[in-house]
Amino acid sequence: MSERWSVGGLVQSAAVLVVLVVVAGSLLGQPLLLSYVETGSMAPTMEPGDGFVALPPALAGDVGPDDVVVYEAKQLNGGGLTTHRVVEETTNGYVTRGDANPFTDQDGSEPPVTDGQIRAVALQVGGSVVTVPALGTLATGLQGAFGGLQRTLSGLVGTDVPTTAVGLLLLGGGVALYGLDDGTGRERPTRDRGAGGTDARVLVLVLTLVVVVPLTGSMVLPGGPQDLGIVSAESDSPAGHVVEAGTTEERTYQLSNAGLLPTVVYLEPASEGLVVSPERTVLDGAAERDATLAVSAPPETGYYVRSLVEHRYVAVLPLAVLDSLYRVHPWAPIVAIDAVVGGGFYLLGTVLVGGGSVRLRRRSRGAARDSWLGTVRRRLG
Question: What InterPro entries does this protein's entry cite (predicted)?
C-alpha cells in the first residue's frame, strides 16, 4: 500500500471525518450519528466532552423510560439541544432529567418533551450508553476554530459569513491539502503516473462537496419539528391559540420557499390531536402556499402542545420516487438526491478533467510576487 493510502493516513482521515460529522450535527441542530455532552448533568453516565452514538428517532423506535434522548429544549438553559434521560411518559409528553440532577427538567419551566422535539436517541448496549471519551472536546475545539475564522471573514467582507460555509471552506481546504502535501513539504506523487501533483479526481471531489453540502443544508435547515401551543378552554375565543375543550378547529400553516429551486414539502403530525392537509406540497422558487392544520383540544382544560414535522427536498426526483423513498425513511430522499446530483457532478467533472494528475509548482513568495507584478505591468503597459 502506498504512503498516500497508508493505514496511518486512513486512521487520521477517519478521525477527522468523525469530528467533522459531530461539528456538522451541532451546527445543523440535528445530531448526525454522533453527538456529545457539554455539561456534567449526565455524570457519571457521560462526563463533559464525552461523545455517544446518536440514533435517529425513526431508527431507534419508540421512546420510553430509561432512554437517553437529545431534544430541543424550549426553556432549559435558554433553549437548544439537551441530552437527558427519560424518567416518565405522560399524556402530555416525556419527563426528563439529567442523571446528576436531583430534579426533573419539568420541575422547572421546561414543559413535557414531545416526540417532535426529540432529535436523536443515544445507543445503549446492555443498558449502558455507548460513549466515546473526549470526542466532544475535539469537536468543541474545531467548532471554535470555525467561529474564529467566521468572525475574521465577516470583518474582512463587512457582512455575516455563515458558520456552515466556513466549515465547508476548511473541509475543502483540508481535502485539497491532503491531496497536495504529505507533511514533509514535498509534492505528493499520484498513484498511477508517479508524477508530482495531486490526482485530478481529488479536486473534482472537493468541488462536488462544495455543491452537495449546501444542497443538503438547504433541505435540512429549513425543516424539522414544529410545535403549536394551544389552550384548551371552557369556551371558544378569538385568540388563535385558544380552542374550546373537546372540539377541533382549523388553523393555517404557511409554507414558504426562500430559494430559487422548486422544493417538495412533506408535513406529518408528531403528536396526537393534529391532522395536516395536504401532506405534500410543491413550492416553486420564491413561492408561498398555505396548509391546513386541524387542531383538537382534549376535554380537560389546560395548556397543551401539538407537534408536526416538516421535511423538505429539492425537486430533483419525480414525485412518485420521492413518495416511495419518503415512506422508507425521511432521510432516504436526501441521500438519493445527493447521490444523483453529487454523482452526476463528479462523473461530469472526471470526464472533463480526465483521470490524470494536476501538478502545482511551489515557488518562493518573492518569485510569486514578482510574477504577479510582472503580469500587472504587462496589462497596464
Answer: LexA/Signal_pep-like_sf, Peptidase_S26
- The helix/strand/coil state of 298 is coil
Of residues 147 and 55, more confidently modeled: 55
Q: Which pTM does this prediction carry?
A: 0.53
d(CA 334, CA 316): 10
Question: Residue ranges per domain, the chain?
Answer: 7-135, 224-329
Residues 199, 188: contact at Cβ < 8 Å?
no
Q: Quote the distance between the C-alpha of residue 297 and its chain's center.
A: 33
Contact yes or no for 34/22 (Cβ under 8 A): yes
> Which grid cell sits at 292?
391546513
DSSP result, 66-108: T-EEEEEESSGGGSEEEEEEEEEEETTEEEEE-TT-SS-GGGT
Q: Under a CB-based contact definition with an 8 Å cutoff, are residues 276 and 310 in contact?
A: no
Q: Distance (Å, rounded) from C-alpha 227 to C-alpha 71?
A: 13
- Rounded CA-CA distance 315/260 in Å is 11
Burial of 172 (0-12, 13-18, 19+ CB in 10 A): middle
- Kindly state the cell numbers that stand for 82: 439537551
From the list 132, 166, 125, the residue with the least C-alpha distance to 19 is 132
User: What is the C-alpha separation between 375 and 381, in angstroms, rounded?
Assistant: 10
Fold match between domain 7-135 and domain 224-329: no
The confidence score (pLDDT) of residue 126 equals 87
279: left (phi over 0), alpha (psi -120 to 50) or beta: alpha
102-138 in b/e burial notation, b at 16+ Cβ within 10 A? eebbbeeebbbbbbbbbbbbbbbeeeebebbeebbbb
Comparing 134-138, 153-157, 187-191, the range with the smallest average pLDDT is 187-191
Q: Please, are residues 321 and 275 in contact by the beta-carbon 8 Å criterion?
A: no
For 7-135, give the CATH class. Answer: mainly beta
Is the CB of residue 51 less than 8 Å from the CB of residue 83?
Answer: no
Sign of dihedral through CA atoms 105, 108, 111, 116?
negative
Which pLDDT value is given to residue 337? 93
Give 224-329's CATH code, choosing from 3.30.70, 2.60.40, 2.40.128, 2.30.30.
2.60.40
The dihedral through the CA atoms of 18, 21, 23, 25 has a sign that is negative
